[in-house]
């Protein structure tokens, strides 16, 4: 079945460092890909998405490119801030149905 | 626009007791989801509603879990009796349409259940 694998955390970085959180997937069809973020004490929020190969999703300085050839959707940010500290989830849906398939989440800790 | 509202935020109960969670989705969202999230894991879908109809409850442990969405708006999820392994965060989400990968789901803050 479909699955999402993301790098284990926690990932600890200093402020203004470059961030990459890896996400790879397996899917039988042509999925849409998502990054959700969960700030401490808050619900899950959609951060960005991409619905077809080579699409780039972006929001709040974060970017991820849908790479069909490597089945990846890595999250990147050029300069992280303390306020980016959160848990990040990669997820997919097959375009034929509704169900979100989730990765295990990666906790990001940014130190001043 | 108000977001998805869940209550209570926290609940501590003894095992074998019943517990109920409530969710009010975003106005106009036909689709409502209940998820369970264990520590260090992604959410697992328990049940999905399209209006008042449960269209996917295949992951709901029906021996102890039940859910309802009587008027197609707010929903309750119940556990009776609760077990120690039910300790988790229970998330409610809603979306405009249930089908298709482009649909964005909006999540509530969740209810953190601790069974002692």
Structure description:
The complex is a heterodimer of chains A (112) and B (116). Chain A has 112 residues and is mainly beta. Chain A has strands spanning 3-6, 11-14, 19-21, 23-26, 31-38, 44-50, 56-59, 62-65, 75-77, 86-94, 101-102, 106-111. In chain A, the strands form 3 sheets. In chain A, strands 2, 5, 6, 10, 11 and 12 form a 6-stranded mixed beta sheet that branches. Chain A contains no helices and 12 strands. Chain B has 116 residues and is mainly beta. In chain B, 0% of the residues lie in helices and 47% in strands. In chain B, strands 2, 4, 5, 6, 9, 10 and 11 form a 7-stranded mixed beta sheet that branches. A 4-stranded antiparallel beta sheet of chain B has the order 1-3-8-7, with no helix packed on it. In chain B, β5 (44-50) and β6 (53-56) form a beta hairpin. The mean pLDDT of chain B is 91. The A-B interface holds A 4, 31-32, 41-46, 49, 51, 89, 91-100, 102-105 and B 3-4, 31, 40-45, 48, 56, 91, 93, 95, 98-110.
Topology:
The complex is a heterodimer of chains A (112) and B (116).
Chain A (H helix, E strand, L loop, with lengths): L2 E4 L4 E4 L4 E3 L1 E4 L4 E8 L5 E7 L5 E4 L2 E4 L9 E3 L8 E9 L6 E2 L3 E6 L1
Parallel strand pairs in A: 2-12
Antiparallel strand pairs in A: 1-4, 3-9, 5-6, 5-10, 7-8, 8-9, 10-11, 10-12
Chain B lengths: L4 E3 L2 E4 L5 E6 L6 E7 L6 E7 L2 E4 L8 E4 L6 E5 L8 E8 L10 E2 L3 E5 L1
Parallel strand pairs in B: 2-11
Antiparallel strand pairs in B: 1-3, 3-8, 4-5, 4-9, 5-6, 7-8, 9-10, 9-11
């Amino acid at each position: 079945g479909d699955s999402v694998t993301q790098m284990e955390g926690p990932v600890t970085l200093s402020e203004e460092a470059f961030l990459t959180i890896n996400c790879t997937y397996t899917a039988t069809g042509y999925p849409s890909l998502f990054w959700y973020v969960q700030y401490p004490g808050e619900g899950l929020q959609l951060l960005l998405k991409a619905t077809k190969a080579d699409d780039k999703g972006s929001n709040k300085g974060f970017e991820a490119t849908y790479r069909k050839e490597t089945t990846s959707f890595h999250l990147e940010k050029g300069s992280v801030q303390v306020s980016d500290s959160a848990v990040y989830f990669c997820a997919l849906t097959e375009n034929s149905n509704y169900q979100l398939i989730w990765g295990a989440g990666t906790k990001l800790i940014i130190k001043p | 626009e108000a977001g998805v509202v869940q209550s209570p935020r926290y609940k501590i109960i003894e095992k074998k007791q019943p517990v109920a969670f409530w969710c009010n989705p975003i106005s106009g969202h036909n689709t409502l989801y209940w998820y369970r999230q264990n520590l260090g894991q992604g959410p697992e879908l328990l049940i999905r509603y399209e209006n008042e109809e449960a269209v996917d409850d295949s992951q709901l442990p029906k021996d102890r879990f039940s859910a309802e969405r009587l008027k197609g708006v707010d929903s309750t999820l119940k556990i009776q009796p609760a077990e120690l392994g039910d300790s988790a965060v229970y998330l409610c989400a809603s979306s405009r349409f249930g089908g298709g990968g482009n649909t964005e789901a909006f999540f509530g803050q969740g209810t953190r259940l601790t069974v002692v």
